[in-house]
Design a protein that fits this description.
With 109 residues, this protein is α+β, with helices and mostly antiparallel strands. The chain is built from 3 helices and 5 strands; from the N terminus they run H-E-H-H-E-E-E-E. It starts with a helix and ends with a strand.
């Protein structure tokens, strides 16, 4: 009986110890590739942009002429990284696109 208790205790300790060492990479938002962004052109309407890039992470109710695609990445043991693409519309069509090409480190709070 004591052998079984010791075996179960040892197995539990090994299983729980393995769980605590696993660190997951956390991603949030829309990562836009260069290939996807290259297909978006001035003059496209919002539906065409959404078909290519997906639903934007941020749409301001007061400035509907701007869509923000923001991406955050938190690798285990590293600082948070951020990238973004902003699409500006005028009269319902793409006027300009701004991209933060680099993943910029964001300081944690």
């Amino acid at each position: 009986m004591i052998k079984h208790i010791v075996s179960l205790s040892l197995a539990s300790a090994l299983l729980l110890g393995g769980c605590s060492s696993y660190k997951m990479e956390i991603q949030q938002g829309n990562y836009i590739t260069s290939e996807e962004l290259a297909t978006v052109q001035r003059g496209m309407n919002a539906g065409q942009v959404q078909a290519i890039l997906g639903t934007p992470l941020l749409v301001d109710d007061f400035r509907k002429d701007r869509w923000d695609y923001v991406f955050y990445l938190k690798p285990p043991g590293e600082a948070v990284k951020r990238s973004s693409v902003t699409v500006f519309f005028q009269n319902g069509v793409v006027r300009d696109i701004q991209r933060d090409d680099q993943l910029v480190k964001v300081q944690p709070k």
